[in-house]
Every structure is written in structure tokens, then in C-alpha cells.
User: Fold 5715_t:CDS:1 from Ambispora leptoticha.
Amino acid sequence: MSLIPTQLKEPTAIYSLLFTLLLFIVSFVVAYNFLSREKFKTSEKYVFMWLTWDALVHLILEGSFVYMSILGRTVETSSGPMAELWKEYGKADSRWLIAEPTVVSIEIPTFILCGPVSVLVLWAITKDHPIRHPLQFLLCTCELYGGYLTWMPEYLTGNKSLAIDNPLYLWVYMVLFNGLWVLVPTFLLVQSWYELLRGAELLSQHRQAKKSL
Assistant:
């Protein structure tokens, strides 16, 4: 009995996972090159790497989905490398194959807003700009809310579009990949929340000091 799922041996599955790995490698290289200076902590390098991957996924992967879905077509009727990648994911969640209106409605602002904001946060990190945490807070809030709107309606209607009986599609495509966009944004949201609180406290102290003069 093979330990490798049959679906994982299919060319489209291999291509999809390799493409995702490629985006991750690009993110690592970009983070290493931009943050090679000693002033950046190791944790910031990991955050930079994540945000680079985040931006690439929003702009390239989700951008291609939006493109295929708003031209009167669907992933299912499209062709090309990106269409094949989304067709593979569509085996786990068929809503992405047919341009389901709720999914498309979520993906449009995710592509238009979250992609550029991710890039702006990256820029703010390299410049140590104070706009970093307000933008990061906005980005993570949008991603978490988008994830909620993506999965809650499906859960409430009985998961009719999900291949939950297939271990690869369930645990890798849906739980692993989508779970990352719950765990990491939650962590970054908390990080930004405390940084914004600290900034508000410093501003309050500054104002109190000015009044006492």
C-alpha cells in the first residue's frame, strides 16, 4: 500500500504544490536580501518573509482567479497554467471552479486591497515607518474577516462544496493552506494592537507633559 495519496501523484497536484513552494522560496530570498542588516531582529525577518509570500499569493494567485472570474468565464472554462492550478484547488472546494458569487465578491477586495497593502507594509518595515502597524492591523483584519466569510456560509449549509472525505484536499489544501491565513494574521494583529496601544500611551504622556509646562 502506497503511503503517498493517489491524488498527490497527479501532474496538476505536483505542479500546484511546486508553484506554492516557489513562491515561498522567492519570499525567503527577498526577506534575506532586504533585511540582511543587523538592526532587524530575526522575528522581523520571518514577518517580512510571510508578508512577501502574502503579497505574492494575493497579487498572483488570487489576482488570476479574479481575472478569470470577472470576464464572463470561470476557472472551469479557462485554460493556462494558473487555471490548472485553480482547477486543482477546485477539487477540494468546487466553489472556485464555478466563480461562486460570494467567493468572487470576497476575492475581489482581497486582491485589490490586501495585495497592495501587503506591499506597503513591507515598505514600511524597511523604512521603520510609523504607518507600518496601522496598515498591518488593517491587512490582518481584512484577511481574517475574508476567511470567516469564505468558510462560515459553507459550514452553515453543510459543506456541500468541500471534498472533506479526501485527506489530501481536506488537510493540505483546505486546513493547512487556509489555516495559515488564520494563525499568522491573528499573531500579527495582536502584535500591531499592542504596538498601537503603546504609541497611544506615548502620545498621551506627551500631551500630559505639554499641559504641565
